[in-house]
Design a protein that fits this description.
Two copies of one chain form a homodimer. By secondary structure, the first copy, chain A, is mostly helical. Chain A is 74% helix and 1% strand. Chain A is built from 16 helices and two strands. A two-stranded antiparallel sheet of chain A has the order 1-2. At the A-B interface, helix 5, helix 7 and helix 8 of A face helix 5, helix 7 and helix 8 of B.
Chain lengths: 324, 324
């Protein structure tokens, strides 16, 4: 299903996401344009709004109250956007969502403080509901995301990184916020504790699958498109699942010996990419993505049948389709 | 009064601040050393612990409950430390508190994510008391600090920055957290709304005086020590109060014409420093610092006499003494 068809079928969700964006902007709203502009640019550039979608849909399994749910969805997306802005500082990225990054266009100061500003505003928004559990969950997940990012950096250029460590990193840096979104949605929908936890678990699995697929996409394309990508994970020493799987399959250690330097030139990058494909790294990584997606489907199927379940299932389909 | 004499006289406060540090460390406590170490290093390097001191002392005007007050004091100091770590990214600083900065020693990633981690943990700590008012205040003040920092950057290399703009920047980037500390202290002490606000105002004034004095210190010293300072405000285009006052006094515009370039060499820096002194910039800035300190004393004197008032007064004295 294309995204166009998806949104045509889900006009209600689309209008809710537009409302979420409005809340995000109102929350940021600052009289000074130099505070507002960089953040608005980032919000306008758009993203998939996956996390708010998951949150809204999860809440609809129970009693849906848009006035409670949409601000929390906005807070989660604000937080996600803040982490992207901070990621771009670390990676020194020039482009994000097809537009110049805040740090590149407005400077490192704008990126650092805009991110902090957005984190603070997310808490403000969540605090409006005055719910200890939600503040606790949000701060815990931010801690997890940061710890995941730090762990990922620690394992740079380390060809001995295991699948287990990779999954732990991905669970923290990406899947934690997916999990929080579904957990909070179910919580806001008033579901019972056991179901809420099941939603959290489903989100975690979706998040892991999502990140693996993202990492696989980084290894698809021709030599030219791979090199054109101004900063890919490999150049920065991030060894993701396709490479980890290839290393595991590579009995000759030819791949490992290529990774012994930490300064890859274009030729190295192409060689590594080709070896990752040759050693079935992408195939095996995709297998794992499928396993996590299936686990997410399994969890979904344990939930009551309803329109939201169908939409969640469609979203899962589209995530998986990205592989092919 | 030297700091040694001060702490000898205030052993109770000292032991409370040691407890605050323990709470800070316990709050950060993460099983992975790569998350913990950079932050612990920063906490260990120490600071003046001014904000927790103000908070604790303010709370003692009412009913002091260490179990409620000390964690909040720790949260405020954690937050302050997080902003310092993020400031060092923006300024590309090598040294902080006499030790290598996190970004210089552990990398930009460690600095970005450690800061975010600490912000999240501050909220977690404050949330333990489950008080909507406190979360609201904390997020508001972080927003203000970020907006203040962004404003300061916007006014870089701008010789037309007014005293009014400078005070607004300083109020946000520095004084907001001083104000919050005293406000929260009084709030936790159970004082009435009017008094709580008076404490907030006192903190604001102390914070402004503190920052002005800091900015004056940047202009004291010999040519050699000034140039040795690896990154001073001036080199980065931050025109602080001594320079702003000197510009105001400089009818010949000789200082303004020197500022027309945004790339100062060592000779320019020395010339500007000397002109700031010649045009009575430091004298006038110190006058303003004294005015704000006196306003803070005035506010203090409206509070009931007690031991904490005396200690606060001593702290104010020592802040002012830094000028001479």
């Amino acid at each position: 299903m294309t995204m166009e068809i998806f949104w045509n079928q889900n006009r209600k969700l689309l209008s809710e996401l537009i409302e979420v964006k409005t809340i995000m902007k109102n929350t940021i709203g600052h009289p000074d344009s130099f505070v507002r502009d960089p953040i608005f640019q980032m919000i306008e550039a758009g993203g998939k709004m996956l996390r708010p979608s998951l949150l809204i849909l999860s809440s609809k399994f129970g009693k849906f109250d848009s006035e409670r749910v949409l601000p929390i969805a906005a807070a989660v997306e604000l937080l996600h956007t803040a982490t992207l802005i901070h990621d771009d500082i670390v990676d020194n990225s020039q482009l994000r969502r097809g537009v110049e990054t805040i740090q590149s266009k407005f400077g490192k100061d704008a990126a650092v403080y805009s991110g902090d500003y957005m984190i603070a505003r997310s808490f403000m928004l969540i605090n409006e509901q005055y719910d200890k559990n939600m503040i606790q969950n949000l701060s815990k997940k931010i801690s997890q995301i940061c710890a995941g990012e730090l762990k990922q950096y620690r394992f740079r250029y380390n060809p001995n990184i295991s699948i287990y460590e990779y999954i732990k990193i991905v669970s923290a840096k990406t899947a934690a916020l997916f999990s929080l979104s579904m957990y909070m949605g179910a919580y806001l929908g008033g579901l019972d504790e056991k179901k809420i936890r099941l939603f959290g678990l489903t989100g975690l699995r979706i998040g892991i699958a999502y990140q693996i697929i993202d990492d696989c996409l980084d290894y698809s394309g021709t030599d030219a498109t791979i090199l054109k990508s101004s900063h890919n994970d490999l150049k920065q020493g991030f060894y993701t699942l396709p490479l980890i799987c290839a290393l595991k399959n590579d009995k000759s250690d030819s791949l490992k010996s290529l990774l012994e330097t930490s300064n890859f030139n274009d030729e190295d990058i192409c060689k590594i990419y080709n070896l990752v494909i040759e050693k079935k790294g992408i195939r095996d990584a995709k297998k794992m993505a499928r396993r996590y997606t299936e686990k997410a489907y399994d969890a979904l199927e344990r939930l009551p049948k309803c329109e939201s379940r169908n939409i969640l299932s469609d979203i899962l389909d589209s995530l998986l389709e990205r592989q092919y």
